[in-house]
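Quick note —
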Amino acid sequence: SASCDLLVIGGGYTGLWTALQAKERDPQRSVILLEAERIGWAASGRNGGFCEASLVHGESNGEQHLPRENARLTELGEENLLELLETISRYNMDVELIKDGILTVATEDHQVPWLREEHAAHPDTLYLGPDQVRGWINSPDFKAGLYSETDGVLVHPAKLAWELARVCDEMGVQIHEHTRAEALAPV
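Predicted structure written out below.
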C-alpha cells in the first residue's frame, strides 16, 4: 500500500518525462511510477533513436494536414528538441548522443518537390540532387535529399529511458517495475 501526490502509469518516455517534470516543478511532490514490465521495455526502448524538431513529419506535410497549426507546431518542435538536449546535458545523461544532422531522402519521384519546398522554406538546409546524395550514400534508390545540420539528433533509445529513470530515481521518484496497474478508483 502506498500513497502519493502523483501516480504515473507507464515507464516509457511519456511516463518518465512526466515524472521528471513533476519533480522539477515541485521537488517536494511525492511521485510514484508503475511499470508493468521494465523501464523502456516497449516502443520507447526499441525505436530508431531519431529525435527531430518536426512534430508533423516535414513542413509540407504539416501545411497539407494542419495549415492553421503548422507554424506553432514548428515552434513547439524546435523548443522540444532544444529542451531534450538541455535535459541530457543538465543531468549528464549517457545516451550516446550524436549531433550529425538529419538527411531526408526522396525514394519516389513525387517526393522530390516536397524536399524542394522544405528547402525553400528553410534555406539553411542543403538540397542534394541524386548524384550529390550518392556521394553521401551510394544508392540508386535516392532521387534527392535534404540535409539539416540542426533539426535532429540520434540517441540510444533504451539508454535514454534508463537515464531518465536514473534521474527520476535520484530526484526521489519511486519506480516500481513489474507492477501492473489493474484498476483506478477515486479515494
